[in-house]
Amino acid sequence: MTAIKATDVDRFVGKPDPRMPVVLVYGPDSGLVRERVNALVKASVDDVNDPFSFVRLEGEDLTANPSRLVEEAHTVPLFGGRRAVLVRPGSRNIAGAVEQVIAAPSDECRIIIEAGDLKKSSPLRAMVEKAKAAAALPCYVDNAAALGRLIDDEMTEAGLAISLDARNALIGLIGGDRAASRNEVRKLALYARGKERVEIDDVLAVVADASALALDGVLDATFAGRTAEVETEFGKARSGGSSPAAIISAAIRHVANLHKMRLAIDDGDSADFAMKRGAPPIHFSRERKVGEALRLWSATGLLRAMNQLAEASLEARRNAALAEAIAQRALLSLAVSARRREG
């Protein structure tokens, strides 16, 4: 079996095993997938601009001609040197083409497959995980420890220190996509240029939308059935500048995401897996409360909640003076339904 453990993936990427010339990089974090693919390409060829050394193939290329991948793998570079092929399957089934190259791998060419989120039952993933000449590298959403390392690395690169409060706050604000997280940290470092240390005010000024954070609090409390917290969190959202209309709109978007995740669970996915595939993925700091909501609400109940919120939105527009009371009442009603397991 050559399914690389998530904790060992970076070590493999830093020094790819020559006994495994076929590498599948997949997972829900598309930014991390791309980052690791780029690192593997860099480690496999001397010049990515040399068409004799580095070839890119799309899924349709292999669907039309499955043998092309093994042919490319055994092509000798015109001027010698290392060679690599990058494959992006997209929605195409390339298992047949990969099966051929696994059966006849080349010691002189690395095959790198950049895929999306593949279930364990996926033919491509299952094949690669069983093959001795191939490696499957999962790219899951970063946890707190991984985000902390990312922050530390970027701050060190920028010649900056970061206070503990600022670091902890930043960890709570990024995640879900490695590329997006790295961009946010780099944006923060650029903002703090000329300072010795990044403070929490810098994080809040650059990365955090305070109103968005407050919205997460009231939405998570509502759908987890935490009635005692809804009023407090609603007050925080209003203090943060969120209008009643914005709160209701955010609740509707949240319900839509919960509904998609609930359907995925009903189809056999685990709650953890469904949250990682959310649109957007659920940040690890919110997983406990969102997990509660997914246990309390059925798909049908969430559709009813969406209709209830749509009615509240219309009522609030018609009665602007009462909009705050209407929004708060709608959220409390949903929290009570969740607590009673009426969802």
From TrEMBL:
UniProt cross-references to InterPro entries, sorted A to Z: DNA_pol3_clamp-load_cplx_C, DNA_pol3_delta_N, DNA_polIII_delta, P-loop_NTPase
GO MF assignments: DNA binding; DNA-directed DNA polymerase activity
UniProtKB keywords: DNA replication, DNA-directed DNA polymerase, Nucleotidyltransferase, Transferase
BP-aspect Gene Ontology terms: DNA-templated DNA replication
Keyword Transferase among UniProt keywords: yes
Lineage top rank: taxon: Bacteria
Domain DNA polymerase III delta N-terminal positions: 24-132
Catalytic activity from the UniProt record: DNA(n) + a 2'-deoxyribonucleoside 5'-triphosphate = DNA(n+1) + diphosphate
Pfam families: DNA_pol3_delta (PF06144)
Entry EC no(s): 2.7.7.7
Gene3D superfamilies, per database record: 1.10.8.60, 1.20.272.10, P-loop containing nucleotide triphosphate hydrolases (3.40.50.300)
GO CC aspect terms: DNA polymerase III complex
Keyword Transferase: yes
Family in the record: Belongs to the DNA polymerase HolA subunit family.
Name of the molecule in the record: DNA polymerase III subunit delta
Upper taxonomic lineage: Bacteria, Pseudomonadati, Pseudomonadota, Alphaproteobacteria, Hyphomicrobiales
